[in-house]
Design a protein that fits this description.
single chain, about 450 residues, alpha/beta, TIM Barrel, 2 domains, 8-stranded parallel β-barrel, two-stranded antiparallel ribbon, 18 helices, 12 strands, about 50% helix, binds D-xylulose, binds cobalt (II) ion
């Protein structure tokens, strides 16, 4: 193992420490003080930050018009490159001081074309991870299977018309669940990579839904069989790579889970950029998941609002992130979940410093956002106004008015000659109130 190649990539980059809002240099946290206690809990334990291996270590900078721009010492196809990548990943985690990481199988081992060799490669890197995790104390937030990059998955994995692809996918998922379990992973994620369609002309929607449910049932059974105590998470996304992704948004995934009776077995991994693609706000998706008791974890990367596709950028908008964490705190926090970025530096951001500082800025935005959200909650004015808005429902007159069936209510409403008074929703005043917390 040529460790010097690793340290040369990040050479000159110091370990990032909390220096407070007045910090002079770039390589410092201004808001992320892991030990700061917010609402009775350490900031680190609220945020549960994770570096996403895929975009931070495996992204090469390609786009439809050009090849890789991000030359890394660990770029390359074989197991030696994979080991170097793992060493470098833990070097990045050390610099950032982040407590968790997450990965797809294909991020960490080479694609060999052989199921047996792919699994052997994953297991070998899993052993290296176990050793590095033991040495550093870094933990695994989640593992997942990449069932979308290789051409074998171009028509989906579980929803593929070819049963051999279903079997390949099942074998791959099993190996990823095994390694996640072995490493003490706290969740297992399922993003429906190419589970969707390009054209209805060749697609049997009903059959594909049954196939997806069959795979999910197998995953749930296997989780219980091996005694995996982590949370199973589905990550909704409405489009890209397929024109129509089946796991469109929180509401769609919830409907699917209810339809097949899996709603108590699975929670949701919600990504900011995916919410935007679905035409929702991020906080809408979080609030809905929270109200369904299904809020699991967060991919905090944002989209460019003009692009119309998934640009996976590090978050940099404090008010947006504050509103997101407000919903998280109201839902009782992230539980076994965490905050990962699933974000990539831009194609021209080729330096090691870009990669490190992309994370540093994002971490500070999250820290500041969470503290603002906590202040909003602690202050209580917003919640008091919301409660007041529905207060009529808690009054005893409402019970009397609404007892019985439609005819009973209707008769009472007519007899009382009801003339409900319109009341302001006070939106502008609430928005003004929210802005007062944002400084
Ligand atoms: C794809 C995406 C994935 C999932 C995990 O848009 O977000 O990285 O987070 O497969
Ligand atoms: Co994601």
């Amino acid at each position: 193992m040529d460790g010097t190649r690793v340290s040369r990539f990040f050479e000159g980059i110091p370990q990032i420490a909390y220096e407070g809002p007045g910090a002079e240099g770039e390589f410092a946290y201004r808001h992320y003080n892991p030990d700061e206690v917010v609402l009775g809990r350490r900031l680190e334990d609220h945020l549960r930050l994770a570096v996403a291996y895929w975009h931070s270590l495996a992204w090469t900078g390609t786009d439809p018009f050009g090849g890789p721009t991000l030359e890394r010492p660990w770029s390359g196809a074989g197991m030696e490159a994979a080991r170097l990548k793992a060493e470098s990943a833990f070097e990045l985690f050390r610099i950032l001081g982040t407590p968790y990481f997450c990965f797809h199988d294909a991020d960490v081992r080479p694609e060999t074309g052989s199921l047996r060799e792919n699994i052997a490669g994953l297991d070998e890197i899993g052993d290296l991870f176990a050793q590095k995790m033991e040495e550093t104390g870094v933990k695994l937030l989640w593992g997942t299977a990449n069932l979308f990059t290789d051409p074998r998955f171009m028509a989906g994995a579980a929803t593929n018309p070819d049963p051999e692809v279903f079997a390949w996918s099942a074998a791959t998922i099993r190996s990823c669940m095994d390694v996640t379990h072995r490493l003490g992973g706290e969740n297992y994620v399922m993003w429906g990579g190419r589970e969707g369609y390009e054209t209805l002309l060749n697609t049997d929607l009903g059959r594909e839904a049954d196939q997806a449910a069959r795979m999910l049932g197998l995953v749930i059974d296997y989780k219980h069989k091996i005694g995996f105590k982590g949370t199973l998470l589905i990550e909704p996304k409405p489009q890209e790579p397929t024109k129509h992704q089946y796991d469109y948004d929180v509401a769609t995934v919830h409907g699917f889970l209810k339809r097949y009776g899996f709603e108590d077995e699975v929670k949701l991994n919600i990504e900011q950029g995916h919410a935007i693609l679905a035409g929702h706000s991020f906080e809408h998706e979080l609030a809905l998941a929270g109200s369904l008791g299904m809020l699991g974890s967060i991919d905090m990367n944002r989209n460019d609002y003009q692009s119309g596709w998934d640009t996976d950028q590090f978050p940099n908008n404090v008010p947006e992130v504050a509103l997101a964490y407000y919903e998280v705190l109201k839902a009782g926090g992230l539980g076994t979940g965490g905050t990962n970025f699933d974000a990539r530096v831009r194609r021209q951001s080729i330096d090691a410093a870009d990669l490190v500082l992309g994370h540093v800025g994002a971490i500070d935005v999250c820290a500041k956002g969470l503290k603002i959200a906590a202040a909003m909650l602690e202050d209580g004015r917003l919640e008091a106004l919301r409660t007041e808005r529905y207060a009529g429902w808690d009054a005893p007159e409402a019970d009397g008015l609404l007892a019985g069936g439609l005819a009973d209510i209707g008769d009472r409403a007519v007899a009382a000659d009801l003339r409900p008074e319109p009341r302001s929703g006070r939106q502008e005043r609430l928005e003004n109130l929210v802005n007062r917390y944002m400084s």
